[in-house]
């Protein structure tokens, strides 16, 4: 009895590379995993005499495993931490470092290690507190386009006083 479907290893290899190329134009990472699974099936089919139905099952299982691993473990590591597009209130509580000291007559500049709402540096002022270049500060409020910051040291004292009361 002849088999109607005769799939050679190079068929799987071509399918795998076509899916990898499709991934370049469709940025979902879905076809990437189907393509990688097809390339692995090509290698297994080349090494071992595997029937067509077993090849399909291996391809489906590998694709499912790759997708689960991607969405469960790998993708959460690449979450956008910039908070771009969110309201200004997401900045309150963030910590940064003073790179230009604020003066009573002009704003200073605070730099964040990760861009916050699309920018790594923001204009800042204090509420009468003196902070120097290199001081770590925490954002306490936003007024217009400027951040109101407070020294991490003064925030630690406030938190300690709250715990005592």
UniProtKB/TrEMBL annotation:
What InterPro entries does its record include?
A: Membrane_assoc_protease, NA-bd_OB-fold
Which residue ranges traverse the bilayer? 12-44, 50-71
Alphabetized UniProt keyword annotations: Membrane, Transmembrane, Transmembrane helix
Keyword Nucleotide-binding applies? no
Q: Which domain of life is it from?
A: Bacteria
What name goes with this protein? NfeD family protein
Q: Which organism is it from?
A: Psychrobacter namhaensis
């Amino acid at each position: 009895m002849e088999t109607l479907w005769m799939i050679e290893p190079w068929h799987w290899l071509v399918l795998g590379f076509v899916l990898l190329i499709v991934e370049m134009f469709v940025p979902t990472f879905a076809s990437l995993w189907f393509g990688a699974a097809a390339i692995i099936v090509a290698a297994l089919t080349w090494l071992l005499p595997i029937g067509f139905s077993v090849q399909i099952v291996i391809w489906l299982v590998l694709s499912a495993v790759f997708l689960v691993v991607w969405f469960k473990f790998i993708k959460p590591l690449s979450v956008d931490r910039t908070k771009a597009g969110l309201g200004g209130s997401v900045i309150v509580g963030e910590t940064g470092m003073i790179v230009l000291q604020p003066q009573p007559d002009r704003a200073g500049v605070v730099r964040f290690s990760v861009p916050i709402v699309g920018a790594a540096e923001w204009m800042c002022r204090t509420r009468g507190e003196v902070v120097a270049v290199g001081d770590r500060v925490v954002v306490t409020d936003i007024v217009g386009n400027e951040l109101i910051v407070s020294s991490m040291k003064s925030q630690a004292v406030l938190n300690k006083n709250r715990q005592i009361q």
